[in-house]
Amino acid sequence: MMSENFETIAIRSQIERSSHKEHSSAIYLTSSYKFDDAEEMRALFANEKKGNVYSRYSNPNTSEFIEKMCLLEGAEDGFATATGMASIFTTFGAFLKSGDHIVSSRSVFGSTHQLLTTVFAKWGVTFDYADLDKPQDWEGLIKPNTKMIFVETPSNPGIDIIDLEFLAGLAKKHNVLFVVDNCFATPYLQQPIKLGADISIHSATKYIDGQGRVLGGIILGSKVLIADIIAFARHSGPSLSPFNAWILSKSLETLAVRMDRHCENALKVAEYLEKHPKIKLVKYPFLKSHPQYEIAKKQMTQGGGIVTIVVQGGIDGARKFMDGLKMFSISANLADTRSIATHPATSTHSKLTEEQRLEVGIEQGSIRLSIGLEHINDILKDIEDALA
């Protein structure tokens, strides 16, 4: 069924039914595939014929998930990985070599920071950080050996935002790859490729699944770029399991309705906390007080489900608040149906120095709130009681 509507595409796009005529896509828990004859095996391995040869390369379930995500985000092709970090590592590994340079947003996930500072650094890849709120500084960091611009927007956990069309123009001017971690926004709220990005990456573990069940990641882009990704991934082996791919593909059917509720609840929480005397700062893209509010309104359809706050009283205030929560889960995860509170300075971003954390707006009193799908009255009451 052809449609231009996100919800219909997410629900009605699926692989061909088997002879059993199943309504919901079947799960193909197989590591390998049978060939009709020796010639078919040769043709498939020579890429002269399309088909599955080994589930490390492709599987009907991963193919369905990839095809759906391509349709939803406006990409030509994609590759699904075991985790979101596997997607970032694979993208870096496929396109970077010793002597290359990256310009990255300073505010990135802690494990991405570790890739840049420890893993790829020992292989001779250098980087410079730029601030999302200082777009005027980005071009000055591009060098003759710069191969990639990498950015999270909205960022984790600072909820900073940069104009994607601006960065796309900058990347095109200097002939470098432009890669966007679109995890916080999902294709429902933001579509980086349509705004000029070369590659869009998701930790599908987060909102794509949205229920805290499975791990997964995906890399989306043009057929030419994804061919390079596949060439690298076939041998490094970060492939998504068929079962997790099936879960994630089914999860996409409810992404729109879930994100609508996440965004609705998160905005109400942000508006409530912005007026609370025990809260020093609230960051949420669709609050008018957000420094990049106008950019967020331009490139996102809603503000997302993450609210980052700074509690008065530093680390003691943050601990008191988190220990006072009864319904919220204290977890390092996010984007679940259940509301979650995280203290980045001692968990997800604990490997950064204090100076590095402050540079991206992570104070000792900073708390990342992943607002779930519970009734808004219960969410607000839990926060109110914890701040009492």
Automatic annotation (TrEMBL):
Domain of life: Bacteria
N6-(pyridoxal phosphate)lysine modified-residue sites: 206
Cofactor(s) it depends on: pyridoxal 5'-phosphate
Enzyme class name: transferase
Gene3D superfamilies with a match to the protein in the record: Aspartate Aminotransferase, domain 1, Type I PLP-dependent aspartate aminotransferase-like (Major domain)
An annotated GO cellular component: cytoplasm
Pathway field: Amino-acid biosynthesis; L-methionine biosynthesis via de novo pathway; L-homocysteine from O-succinyl-L-homoserine: step 1/1
GO aspect biological process, one term: transsulfuration
Coiled-coil region list: none
Name of a matching Pfam family: Cys_Met_Meta_PP
EC number, as in UniProt: 2.5.1.-
Zinc in keyword set: no
GO molecular function terms listed in the Swiss-Prot or TrEMBL record: carbon-sulfur lyase activity; pyridoxal phosphate binding; transaminase activity; transferase activity, transferring alkyl or aryl (other than methyl) groups
Keywords annotated in UniProt: Amino-acid biosynthesis, Aminotransferase, Methionine biosynthesis, Pyridoxal phosphate, Transferase
Keyword Zinc: no
Catalytic reaction annotation: O-succinyl-L-homoserine + hydrogen sulfide = L-homocysteine + succinate
Record function comment: Catalyzes the formation of L-homocysteine from O-succinyl-L-homoserine (OSHS) and hydrogen sulfide.
Assembly mode: Homotetramer.
Homology family: Belongs to the trans-sulfuration enzymes family. MetZ subfamily.
Name of this protein: O-succinylhomoserine sulfhydrylase
